[in-house]
Amino acid sequence: MITRTIQVNLWNLVSPLAKTFDLMNPVLADHCLRVAYLSMRLAEELDWPAWKKRETAIAGALQDIGAFSLAERLELLEFETGDRGTHARAGYLLLREFKPFGQIAETVLYHHLPWRHGAGEQSNGKPVPDGSHLLHIADRTAVLVQKDKPVLGQIDGIRSSIGERSGSWFVPAHVDALLRLCDRDYIWMEIATGAMEGALRNSLGVETIDTDVRELLAFSRLVCRIIDFKSEFTATHSSGVAAVGKTLASLVGFSRQECVMFEIAAYLHDLGKLAIPSEILEKRDHLTQDEWSVMRTHVYYTYQILDPIGVLSLVSSWSALHQERLDGSGYPFHIHADDLPLGARLMAVADVFTAITEDRPYRKGMMREEPCGSSMRWKSGANSTGGWSLCWNPASTRSTGPARKPRPRQSGGTWSSGRRSKGTGSRGSPRPQRLVPRKLPFVMSVFNKLL
User: Fold this and answer.
1) Shared domain check, 118 and 48
2) For the segment 114-142, what is each residue's pLDDT rounded down to a tens digit?
3) Domain membership flag for residue 34
4) Measuring CA to CA, which residue among 176, 258, 273 is closest to residue 223?
5) Are 354 and 240 in contact (CB under 8 A)?
6) Nearest residue to 319 (alpha-carbon basis) of 229, 385, 416
7) Is it the case that residue 149 has pLDDT exceeding 90?
8) Contact between residue 222 and residue 94 where contact means Cβ atoms under 8 Å apart
């Protein structure tokens, strides 16, 4: 069951990530997509085979994956950056962990290496992929395009800046290809008008690879590392939530397959934090109201990233709803208890338990025994609408069928708790299935098993 083959569109996995990196600051908007788009067009102009064109475009979308802070990303937008490839090395180490990204990782590793009249064919005795040098010229060209000026009026300047570095910075054949693209207005209009994503999807979006749940788990671990590496204070948070959450899912009766899917969801639950500047994540004082408003958006971005990826539709609600609360006071959708999936409730418990045992910039973490006592006090005390009771209310049973959607989903389908009953109601939806009562007041017993 777990090793069954799944067809995955790699571009559909990568595109939402690229857009998320660019959300960190308006100045960054569309940079990763621009690099991917120019890489694709250059590869077409050079008549590269389809697989090579696809891998280079994906590398373009992920080329700055190792730049974790806003300051690093803004520096990379300078044409003559002082960066010497530190972020490229970090990106390589991250990407190589996912088997389908093996060659893409090599391309990213060398994407700031200058050609140096042929000396750049190798680095430390190892051959450098052609895609790395193509990515270099695509990246530096994307930096030259200014959003606040008419794009067609910038072409002569781009032609001059790139052309004069032929042979020193860039492969001459790649420069010649770019100069030919400079004569095609539609290329630059697609960049300026935001039509790049449609062009990329039309060219790359029909190609799929065969994978399985274990490789999807490896992909989620890759994303987890990217998320957690943004801050030393959250360096193990998502992996901690995955370990706690997988145990919780098993204890409440999730199947083996569902436990693996829940682990994937846990690794991805803070995906939207890629859009939050590290300067906010690592602030050592209380967040201002404006900063907290930015922080709260991360859950919505998680939803926006995962929702279009069909192969991850099962885990989307578990990841995206972990900040919702039973009384509707959570965010971003303010969903109430009756509509909150079981997987999302478990994720909320795992997230809070893991978070309060970790050191953060503004406080030390609790000892592992302390959250158990806190959960019981919160459950029985005056703050009955806070703490763990927001995630799990043992006084009520609930349907484990599909949750109502906060808004229409473009990709179709419904959110699911992951626990469906065998029968169906009159409208074809699962009949309400009551959880075994003795499993409901589980907080202390679960934590005792985890300690």
Assistant:
1) yes
2) 999 999 999 999 999 999 999 999 999 99
3) yes
4) 273
5) yes
6) 416
7) yes
8) yes
Give the burial class of 354: count Cβ atoms within 10 A of its Cβ; 0-12 exposed, 13-18 middle, 19 or more buried.
buried
Q: Of 305, 358, 300, which is closest to residue 324 (Cα–Cα)?
A: 300
Mean pLDDT of 258-283: 87
Instruction: Based on the fold, state whether residues 331 and 390 are members of the same structural domain.
Output: yes
Percentage with pLDDT > 70 across the chain: 70
pLDDT at 75: 57
Compute the chain's Rg from CA coordinates: 24
Q: Give the number of other CB atoms < 10 A from CB of residue 153.
A: 10
Same domain, 193 and 229: no
**226 in the same domain as 202:** no
Name the domain boundary from 209, 227, 255. 209
165 and 193, same domain (yes or no): yes
**Structural domain total, the chain:** 2
Taking 80 as the threshold, does the pLDDT of residue 347 lie above it? yes
Q: Are residues 139 and 257 in the same domain?
A: no
Residue 422 identity: K
Alpha helices by DSSP H, 307-427: 313-320, 342-356, 370-380
Mean predicted lDDT score pLDDT of the chain: 76
Identify the H or E element spanning 144. Answer: helix 130-144
Domain boundary among the residues 209, 233, 260 is at 209
pLDDT in the model for residue 196 = 92
CATH of the domain at 259: 1.10.3210.10
Q: What's the DSSP call for residue 119?
A: G
Question: Taking phi first (over 0 means left), then psi (-120 to 50 degrees means alpha), and beta for anything else, what does residue 429 get?
Answer: beta
CA distances from 153 to 140, 148, 159, 441 (A): 18, 11, 11, 67
3-state secondary structure of 85: coil
User: Are 39 and 149 contained in the same domain?
Assistant: yes
* CA–CA distance, 147 with 289 (Å, rounded to integer): 30
Compare 367 and 344 and report the one with higher pLDDT: 344
Q: Which domain holds residue 299?
A: 211-450
Answer yes or no: do 296 and 176 share one domain: no
pLDDT at 352: 87
Mean pLDDT of 297-316: 84
Q: Judge whether 1 lies within some domain.
A: no
Task: Fill in the amino acid letter for 92.
Answer: Y
- Separation between Cα atoms, residue 290 and residue 33, nearest integer Å: 28
Q: Tens of pLDDT along 413-426?
A: 334 334 433 333 33
Tell me how far apart the terminal alpha carbons of the chain are, to the nearest angstrom.
31
Q: Which of 40-49, 322-331, 346-355, 385-394 has the lowest mean pLDDT?
A: 385-394
* Residue 242 included in any domain: yes
Using the predicted structure, report yes or no on whether residue 367 has a pLDDT greater than 60.
no
